[in-house]
Amino acid sequence: MVERRSPKPEVGGSIPSAPATKIEIIMKNPLKFIQEVKQEAFKVTWPTGKETLQGTLMVVAMAIVASIFFLLLDQILKFLLELLLKLGM
Description:
By secondary structure, the protein is mostly helical. The chain has one domain. It is 69% helix and 0% strand. The chain is built from three helices and no strands. It has helices at 22-28, 30-43, 49-88.
């Protein structure tokens, strides 16, 4: 892995003597990490119950439409294949 350095050495952390892994950074202060996760979770825009229901119904409807489409396509191809095999005999 090639180490990439910032063209601006005055930028903090641009030339680490030994780059810390994410695990090391998290383990230094796990309570701070948990607090930051909680803060980020509150920033999320969660869907309402109505939006969730609408999305679920759309997925179910599209699954039904797709299954009907593939059922019809399968039946048509089956019919054509049987017709072709009967002509060959």
